[in-house]
């Protein structure tokens, strides 16, 4: 099956804090609509972290949620910043800066790639 025939959902977001909740709500609704489970809310948390990074570093953001196969869910965050995400050095006293570590810990795989207008940061999780 072609990837465009697989279930997917696209949502343009504004670079404001409220976008994080909208992105989580979208992921939850999409997964429920596709009758797939987001075990422990991992995909929602991953989405929150990726969208938060985009809000801090970009001016345009697009969320794509998809099911590339029968056991995988994927979230992609497209933005207009061409620089790839960088995990800061861990500061155990800092109130932020652990987002990419969480993404790495909760996802099966994750990464980013350049696009003509910026980049896309993505993560995949296993879904029953």
Structural account:
By secondary structure, the chain is α+β, with helices and mostly antiparallel strands. It has one domain: Heat Shock Protein 90 (2-Layer Sandwich), CATH 3.30.565.10. 31% of the residues lie in helices and 30% in strands. The protein has three helices and five strands. It has helices at 18-33, 42-57, 99-106, and strands at 8-13, 61-69, 72-79, 109-115, 118-126. The protein has a five-stranded antiparallel β-sheet with strand order 1-2-3-5-4. Strand 2 and strand 3 (72-79) form a beta hairpin. Helix 2 (42-57) runs antiparallel to helix 3. It is globular. The model has no long low-confidence stretch (mean pLDDT 89).
List the defining traits of the structure above.
128 residues; alpha+beta; Heat Shock Protein 90; 5-stranded antiparallel sheet; 5 strands; 31% helix
Structural class: alpha+beta
* Number of structural units classed as domains: 1
Poorly predicted regions are: none
Q: List how many beta strands DSSP finds.
A: 5
What is the number of helical segments per DSSP (H or I, 4+ residues)? 3
Main sheet overview: 5 strands, antiparallel
Kindly estimate the percentage of residues that lie in beta strands according to DSSP.
Answer: 25-35%
Q: Enumerate the strands of the largest sheet in spatial order, edge to edge or round the barrel.
A: 1-2-3-5-4
CATH architecture: 2-Layer Sandwich
Here the CATH topology equals Heat Shock Protein 90
Question: Percent helix among the residues?
Answer: 25-40%
Shape: globular
Arithmetic mean pLDDT: 89
